[in-house]
Task: inverse folding
């Protein structure tokens, strides 16, 4: 009975060492790949159409005036 218990303990210790070793040394990093997904916004523009535009070029007259005042600290 004592020999079986000793064998079980040794196997458990070796298994734990194996799991810990695999966690530190095993290469489990996922393969990375670029994903591009076309998105259609509620106003009908797609990702390709809006990619080149910036917020500054799409501001209205009132937006541009208030941003200028905020940026200058007035």
Result:
């Amino acid at each position: 009975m004592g020999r079986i218990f000793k064998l079980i303990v040794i196997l458990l210790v070796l298994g734990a060492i194996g799991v810990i070793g695999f966690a530190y040394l095993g290469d489990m990093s996922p393969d990375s790949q670029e994903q591009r997904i076309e998105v259609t916004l509620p106003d009908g523009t797609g990702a390709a159409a809006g990619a080149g535009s910036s917020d500054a070029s799409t501001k209205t007259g009132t937006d541009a005036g208030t941003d200028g005042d905020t940026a200058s600290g007035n």
Observations:
- Residues 53-57 have pLDDT under 50 and may be disordered.
- The two ends are 87 Å apart (CA to CA).
- Helices lie at 2-25, 47-50, 61-72.
- Residues 2-25 form the longest helix (24 residues).
